[in-house]
Every structure is written in C-alpha cells, then in structure tokens.
Amino acid sequence: MRRYVKAMSTAVVVAGLVVPAIAVSSPMYPKGKGNIAAGKQIFENGKGTVPACTACHSEDGMGNDDMGTPRIAGQYAVFLRKQLEDFATDKRKDNTMGVMNDNAKGLSPQDRTDVSTYLESIDPGAKGEMFFNGSNLEELTANGVEVGATHKGKSLVEWGQGNRQKPVAACRSCHGFNGRGAPPIYPRIGGQRYVYLVNQLKAWRDGTRNNDPMGQMQAIARNMSDEDIKNAAAYLTKASDYTKGNFYTPYD
After folding, report:
1. Residue 33 vs residue 25, higher pLDDT
2. CA–CA dist 225, 205 (Å, integer)
3. 193 near 179, Cβ under 8 Å?
4. 96: domain CATH number?
5. Residue 153 falls within a domain, yes or no?
C-alpha cells in the first residue's frame, strides 16, 4: 500500500511538471512570415487603389452580417494567404461584395503575406469570450433573418448525420472541436459570422465556390439541406475555442 501511495505521489509530481510544459509549448503549426506592421497598415488604410479592409470587415476584423462579410481576425495566415491568392488568380470568385478579386490583384504577393500575418496575430480572445462568438442571433432574428437551431447544429458539427440517405460528415472531423480549425489546411469556422457561413455553405453546395481541397466542402455541402446549413451556422457562430474548464486550446 505504501509503495502504491508513493508511486501515485511520484506520478502526481511528474504530471505537475509535465502538464504545464505542454500547456505553454509553442503552437506547432506554420505561422505567418510577413511583416505585421505593414499588414496592419494595409488592413487599416489600404494601399494604392485597394481600400482599407476595415471598410467591409469592420475595424476589429470581425466581419459584418449586414454586408455578409466574414470574420478574418484571428484566422490562420496560411489559409488567408491562400484565399487572397485564389482571388488574385480568379480561382475563387467573390460572391459576397464582388470586390475581393480586384482587391487581391491590387496587392503584391508580399502585401498578401503581410496582411494575412497581421490578421493571424490578432488574439481572438483578447476582448473576452464574446469577441469570438461571431453573430448576435437574437438581433438577426429580430431583423427578419432566418436563424437555425443551435442544438441541432451542434449535432451536425460535432457528430454529423451518418444515418440518413445522404449522410453529412461532422464539421469537427476536419475543422476540429467547435470549428476552431486544424491549420494549415482547415480554417477556423467557429465564431465566424452567421450570414457568411450560410452563404458559403450554399455556394459550396451549388458549386459557385469550388476552391476547396479535393472538393471536400462541395461533397459535404451537397448533402446538406437549407435547414442543415442554418442549424450548423447557428451553432458555429456561437462556438467557443475553449472546452469547459480548460483555459488552453491546442494552439495556445
């Protein structure tokens, strides 16, 4: 018994040493390599014929439901950089405001790297939990927007729907817990704007957006009904990066 207690005590000591070391380790994913100060300048003031990103994405980069624009603050730089490249080469068409193709072409490759790096550097939790809980669903409902059911959306996001004729894979299988992302390939979709999520899922479904790796999003969205899309978007926009009782994510 004494040997057991001693062994347990040793394990607790070891755990006490190891766990904090894991918690404070550097995030193990490719970070942006651009100039943060230069990226901030472009975001806030634009460059040449390219207007400030704040004009559509708001001053804090959290997007705007009225305009249908996404939250880009705290998004992974490698994903943002790819989207800007896709806009610049017309591999992706801007189906929101119709300006991103020209804007991306007006930025140099280095500019795209810089602004992506700056946006990634914005801490999603810097203003508290509400900072990354994307849209105000009650306000959207009051303004006549059809909003899905978050509890049904959680089922789709976390577990999917495999027991029906057209199964839907769980968002979590690629985008991680609560859609917090799995860089460098899969972006953060938790805390994203509701209207943008709905519009993009519909665009994946009808093929008007098709710049996804291996056609994964198109294949998944084709099996989603309008109700599925609204439900998933409702849950994701309010989803926190953090699990209950855990002050860390894998990227902290």
Report:
1. 33
2. 9
3. no
4. 1.10.760.10
5. yes
116 and 161: one domain?
no
Question: Per-residue pLDDT tens for 71-126?
Answer: 999 999 999 999 999 999 999 999 999 999 999 999 999 999 999 999 999 976 65
Domain boundaries, position 191: 129-237
Asked if 117 and 146 sit in the same domain, the reply is: no
Tell me: the pLDDT tens digits for 142-158? Answer: 999 999 999 999 999 99
Sign of the CA dihedral running 35, 41, 47, 51? positive
- Residue 115 falls within a domain, yes or no? yes
Q: How many CA atoms lie within 13 A of 110 on its CB side?
A: 4
Nearest Cα to Cα of residue 115 among 149, 77, 67, 148:
77
Give the start-end residues of each E strand in 212-251.
none
The amino acid present at 233, given as its one-letter code, is: A
Residues whose CB falls within 8 Å of the CB of residue 212, separated by 6 or more in sequence, listed in order: 204, 218
pLDDT at residue 190 tops 90: yes
**Among 149, 222, 151, 234, which residue's Cα sits nearest to residue 198?**
234
Helix-strand-coil split of the chain, %, nearest 5: 50, 5, 45
Q: What is the tally of structural domains in the chain?
A: 2
CA torsion 249→68→72→226, rounded to 10°?
Answer: 40
CA distance 225 to 105: 35
CB atoms within 10 A of CB 111: 21
Q: Are residues 139 and 89 in the same domain?
A: no
As beta bridge partners, residue 69 has 64
- In which residue are the tokens 């790096």 written? 117
Tell me if the bond preceding 30 is cis, omega within 30° of 0. no
For residues 141 and 106, membership in a common domain is answered with: no
